[in-house]
What we know:
By secondary structure, the protein is α/β, with parallel strands linked by helices. It contains nine helices and twelve strands.
Amino acid sequence: MKKIIFFIFLPIFAFANFFTFKPVAITKDISCFIGDFNPIMKENRGFVSNVCYIDIGESLVLLDSGSTYNFAKELNEFIEKSTNKKIEYVVVTNYHGDRLLGASFFKQNGAIIIGDSNMPKMIDEHSERYLRGLQLLSEELKKDTTIIKPDLHVDKEYVIKGSKKSVKVIKPSEGTQTTTDLIVYSKDDSFIFTGNTIFNGRFLNYAEDSNIDEWIKALHVVANLKAKYVMGGHGDDFSKDSYKSTLKYLKLLKNQVKEALANDIDPADLSKNIHTDEFKSIPHYEELYMRNARNYYNQLEWQ
């Protein structure tokens, strides 16, 4: 009698991860993962902002946590396997979902979440925004993602002490793109992670709650630290001069919009006074450059 053999075929995705991580080694103790240069969409699975970790001795500090619980879970598995160390601290550099929402996994697993002192208020005010930001992602990918608030709040500076090095979490000004932006500085590594204080690889978004003067001030703080490696929240440039493009654009935006207001140029004709074509090759310039100008113009009108 012939034996009948049954094969059971299971969907490949039942065992597959959502993400393939390719770390970029900055120093022997720091690696970063570069997010997609586009907004959240189905194709990038919400991985749109840079995430880094710093080895401080017996444990690790994670810089931003990604958009979802499952992103954070897979990232954690990859990092723990690579380093044989656990993530003890997670610094969330602003309240946006692409930096915050993955922290729900890390908090569940005992990590200490660090954020700006304004963050709880901003999270409450923008809770619906988080749901909208994830609407293009699959239900399986979004599963278990929740909104959490930081355990430790930074007003000016907080020092994370490890067995071999300390890392500073710094609020460089009253607010840059948002009122909740932080930077992280490792003196021993001559490394700064800036979150949304620096954009490379995609054009920056000057939002209604951005502060151009404080943003420029924060970039001067970054410059004055004279770090060898400066990693922004978007883009793959981590050279010491990576902040200069953001700084140059903000200064141009400020001067040109102020001139337009002083000359009583109607907001509908504002484009006639905005000359920032040197940044035109940066992805998403066309969608954002006039919106940035109008947002700043409106701020000046109401001052």
